[in-house]
Structures are given as structure tokens and as C-alpha cells.
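A.,

Following up on our hallway conversation. C-alpha cells first:
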């Protein structure tokens, strides 16, 4: 059975977008209907009617109420998460990936925040979250990790 998949990503320096494209390519090769869009272009209603929603974000810093907060979602993903936080999507299937850097205190905290969002809306993650360290410093291995993770998704989707 071919699934309707929405990949929502947020990126600052294009790494998360590249990872999302790899996932899109793998799922599309297996004939799943995949839509990929930036979080800034995503509305909560876009998640309706999807068999799987994949959320991906870099881990970044935000300035909220004059405070600098490390280990946060990219701004557009943060904004979407705020729009979704009071919404209920019971039994919605999700997958989560995030990019980060072990040099920072809160490595891939964006993944934890997205997992919390999934829980808060009543959804469930269907495979373990992918956390990627230092995307641009090890492109070959990081791209391979995304390919393997996307392969897990394909197997899970059947």
C-alpha cells in the first residue's frame, strides 16, 4: 500500500533540507506519494489526511522575550510547533529527525522538542528518531545515515 507522506523541514544552512530531500527520494522511489515543504509554508491543516508526517529541524538558538535560548527548534519550525501544540492528532504517525552539533550543550535538542510535540498532539513515532551530528563535517557518513533511516521508514511503511 502506498502512503501519503508529508515531510516538513526547517533549515538555516541547507543541511536539514538536504536530509529531507534524501528521505523524499527514497520514499518516492518506493512509490509513496511524498510532499516536502518548508515549515514556514506549512499550516496545521496540511497534516490532515497524511499516513505519515516527517518532521525535521536543525537545532538552533532563539531569542524569546529578550532571552537567548540554545538548543531550540529553527524559528519556522518553532512557529509551526506553537500553532500545533493545542491541536489533537490522535493516532497520527510521525517520524522525526534533527541536526545538531555535539559541541553545544544541548545536542540535537530539536529532536527532543519535536518528539514532545508529537506526544502532545497525540501522535506516535513509528521508528526511532534520527539525530545527526555536524552535518557538513561528515557529509558522506551523514548522508548514508539518512539513507539507512529512510530505508527503515520504507520497511515500516511496507
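Then the amino acids I'd put at each of the 158 positions:
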Amino acid at each position: 500500500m502506498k502512503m501519503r507522506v508529508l515531510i516538513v523541514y526547517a533549515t538555516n544552512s541547507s543541511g536539514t533540507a538536504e536530509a529531507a530531500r534524501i528521505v523524499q527520494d527514497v520514499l518516492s522511489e518506493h512509490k509513496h506519494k511524498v510532499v516536502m515543504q518548508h515549515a514556514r509554508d506549512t499550516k496545521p491543516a496540511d497534516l490532515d489526511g497524511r499516513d505519515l508526517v516527517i518532521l525535521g529541524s536543525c537545532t538552533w538558538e532563539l531569542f524569546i522575550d529578550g532571552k537567548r535560548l540554545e538548543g531550540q527548534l529553527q524559528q519556522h519550525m518553532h512557529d509551526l510547533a506553537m500553532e500545533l501544540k493545542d491541536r489533537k492528532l490522535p493516532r497520527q504517525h510521525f517520524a522525526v529527525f534533527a541536526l545538531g552539533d555535539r559541541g553545544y550543550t544541548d545536542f540535537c535538542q530539536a529532536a527532543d522538542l519535536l518528539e514532545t510535540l508529537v506526544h502532545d498532539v497525540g501522535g506516535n513515532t513509528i521508528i526511532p528518531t534520527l539525530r545527526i551530528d555536524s552535518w557538513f563535517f561528515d557529509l558522506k557518513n551523514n548522508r548514508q545515515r539518512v539513507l539507512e533511516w529512510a530505508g527503515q521508514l520504507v520497511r515500516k511503511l511496507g
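Strands lie at 4-10, 33-38, 52-64, 67-73, 93-100, 124-125, 130-133. Curious whether your intuition agrees with the design.

B.
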